[in-house]
Specification:
Blueprint lengths: L1 H6 L6 E8 L2 E8 L2 H10 L7 E7 L14 E2 L5 E9 L2 H10 L10 H15 L2 H11 L2 E9 L6 E6 L4 E4 L4 E4 L11 E4 L5 E5 L2 E5 L9 E4 L15 H7 L1 H9 L18 H6 L2 E6 L1 H18 L3 E5 H4 L10 E7 L5 H12 L3 E6 L5 H4 L3 E4 L12 H21 L4 H23 L1 H10 L5 E6 L3 H16 L2 E6 L16 E5 L9 H14 L3 E7 L11 E5 L8 H18 L18
Parallel strand pairs: 14-15, 14-16, 16-17, 17-18, 19-20, 19-21, 21-22, 22-23
Antiparallel strand pairs: 1-2, 1-3, 4-5, 5-6, 6-7, 7-11, 8-9, 8-10, 10-13, 11-12
Bound molecules: fructose -6-phosphate.
Fructose -6-phosphate binds next to helix 9 and helix 16.
């Protein structure tokens, strides 16, 4: 149950557990959050056992009901199975099983796998062999775990296109879709490859490949501990993760440049000559990660003079993109498990492009399937709304841009050094913005009845505006839009009426020519039409004052690096406004932390 609680961020519309005892298989499952299952287990405890499986679900096939919750049980009541992912050919398999007389209790694709593994076990008499045989007929994405009444000390698992890791304990072993599941028991882990089947007991771990041959999985040590995965004294994970941001940025910068400012990105296994020959970068990502990509576009194009396109991963492969061996595809993902991004990575590699992943989760699918990886070191992000991962992604993009500029000779060493120096100052600047949270929270509480909020930004302020709007939508369920400030007069300004709240992200007055002045004009345009303006501006920027109803100050920062500070008040605002409305900021409705289906 403790492990499930740590994984609840992956899906939380129902949960279930099954235990195998010498007396047979027992299980419990409940719709709703994990607390419903806990309550049920308190009323009717399961017997003690030495092997168990558990699952939290995010519905794909069949609504979130007790019956559709996992585990699913075979018709003879002897086998319990849990599943992440989608079995794409489940309808055909279901028809075949139904023709054989199997009746189905749930609407899930998972139940098909439970019946198939049970049938294979009855034929083969071996749970591992049964699991292997079934993975050969399943199509799609799955992590499967099964226990059988005949095998009280054994759990068998398999994975394809969906994560599964092994935790190695002493006299105990674990399987989890993420190391968070077993982090309080062990930091020693094994990474499982595509189509592998794993069999664990208390003192053994056996892994075979899709042909049944033994394989030696790659071992790794988890570099964060259980305390990082709990709220650390904050009311919510989101609060904690907002406060983690200075460290997330500092850790992501750590060890990437030597004393002379020479960058070495050692996880970057693409040859220097290939990186010198690329003529285009395409960033693929979804949601917040895609906004990090948009910030990257401004920085990398400016520093490296390479064209950068940013594409939503789910649009990428369906539009026949022009990418080839001269394109560097950069896949950005916190979880490393976003199915839309995984499919885009595969498509890019099929076209001959090299793929570099910027990912936060070690052992996840995207880095495994990419040519190189630049890990962000934000630590586990549990709240569904991404905060610290976003800042770490932007930081990693800057490092990539500077590295490419160094390699391709676009910038002088001293120019790179001075930007690295500015970057090193960012954790303290972010901390200063976080320290000013009470001002933002007061304003947020006063706006809890708002029904629509607009966000405007130019240049790197544009993706920040969109991220501010996304945070507000997903946390506070308020209609919010982020616009490029210059686009306003082409239509969106019609939305502005008396007292319409409008956030404006104001660029540094010391930055690009005209940029600051243009945004000041945009504030005036909306204010003249009755808007209530909430302005994010640098300390010392007095030009905004006559036109701002509220000013949130951020430290003076070079234009390209400003998103790292400007987005923070917007995160705090959304978090506090949602809290004031009594909403669950860690687990907003209809969402899951990792979107592992297309
Ligand atoms: C928003 C949010 C999502 C994710 C998106 C991509 O707060 O969290 O928009 O950014 O689903 O997820 P990753 O980064 O895991 O690929």
């Amino acid at each position: 149950m403790e492990g499930l609680a740590r994984l609840e961020y992956r899906g939380y519309d129902s949960a279930g557990v099954a235990v195998v005892t010498p007396g047979g298989l027992k299980w419990a499952k409940r719709a709703g959050k994990l607390t419903n299952l806990s309550t049920a287990l308190k009323e009717n405890p399961l017997p003690l056992a030495t092997a168990a499986i558990g699952h939290t679900r995010w519905a794909t096939h069949g609504g979130p009901t007790d019956t559709n919750a996992h585990p699913h049980i075979s018709a003879d009541g002897n086998l319990a199975l849990i599943h992440n992912g989608i079995i794409e050919n489940f309808n055909t398999l279901k028809d075949e099983l139904a023709a054989d007389g199997v009746s189905f209790l749930s609407e899930t694709d998972t139940e098909v796998a439970a019946h198939l593994v049970s049938r294979a076990y009855n034929e083969l008499g071996d749970l591992t062999a049964a699991m292997l045989a079934v993975t050969r007929v399943l199509e799609g994405a799955f992590t499967l775990l099964a226990v059988h009444a005949d095998r009280p000390g054994t759990v068998v698992g398999a994975r394809r296109n969906s994560p599964l890791v092994v935790g190695l304990g002493e006299g105990e072993n674990f399987l989890g879709s993420d190391v968070a599941a077993f982090i309080s028991q062990t930091k020693s882990a094994l990474e499982l490859g595509q189509d592998q089947v794993v069999t664990i007991t208390a003192d053994s771990v056996r892994v075979i490949d899709g042909d049944g041959n033994p394989v030696e999985p790659r071992a790794f040590t988890v570099d964060w501990d259980a305390s990082a995965a709990v709220k650390g004294g904050f009311a919510t994970f989101m609060d904690k993760e907002i406060h983690d941001q200075p460290k997330a940025v500092a850790d992501t910068l750590l060890g990437r440049a030597d004393k002379s400012g020479h960058l070495a990105l050692d996880e970057l296994h693409i040859s220097e000559s290939v990186l010198r020959s690329i003529d285009k970068i395409v960033v693929i990502a979804c949601g917040t990660a895609a906004y990090a990509g948009q910030v990257a576009k401004y920085a990398i194009e400016h520093w490296c003079r390479i064209p950068v396109e940013v594409e939503l991963a789910h649009e990428f492969r369906y539009r026949d993109p022009v990418v080839n061996e001269k394109t560097l595809v950069v896949a950005i993902s916190q979880s490393g498990e976003t199915m839309d991004t995984i499919m885009a990575v595969r498509h890019a590699r099929e076209q001959g492009s090299k793929v570099l992943a910027i990912v936060n989760t070690h052992g996840s699918t995207i880095p495994r399937e990419s040519d190189a990886v630049l890990y962000t070191h934000a630590g586990p992000e549990v709240a569904v709304a991404s905060t610290k991962a976003f800042l770490a992604q932007i930081t990693a993009c800057y490092l990539l841009g500077l590295y490419l500029a160094q390699l391709r000779g676009n910038m002088y060493a001293d120019e790179i050094r001075s930007i690295l120096k500015e970057l090193a100052l960012m954790p303290d600047k972010i901390q200063r913005v976080v320290d000013n949270e009470e001002q933002v929270r007061d304003v947020a509480r006063s706006m809890k009845d708002a029904t629509s909020v607009l966000f405007l930004g130019r240049h790197v302020g544009f993706p920040v505006a969109m991220e501010g709007a996304l945070k507000l939508k997903e946390l506070a369920y308020i209609h919010a839009e982020g616009f490029a400030a210059g686009e306003l007069k082409h239509g969106p300004i019609a939305l502005v009426e008396q007292d319409q709240p409008v956030f404006v992200i104001v660029p540094s007055p010391r930055g690009r020519d005209q940029l600051h002045a243009k945004v000041i004009s945009n504030i005036q345009e909306v204010r003249a039409r009755g808007a209530r303006t909430l302005v994010i501006a640098e300390e010392g920027d007095t030009a905004v004052e006559p036109f701002a109803d509220v000013v949130f100050r951020v430290p003076q920062t070079p234009t390209l690096l400003a998103p790292l500070v400007c987005v923070v008040p917007l995160q705090i605002f959304a978090c506090e406004l949602a809290t004031a409305k009594g909403l669950d900021v860690d687990q907003p409705r209809n969402l899951a932390k990792s979107v592992t289906v297309e």
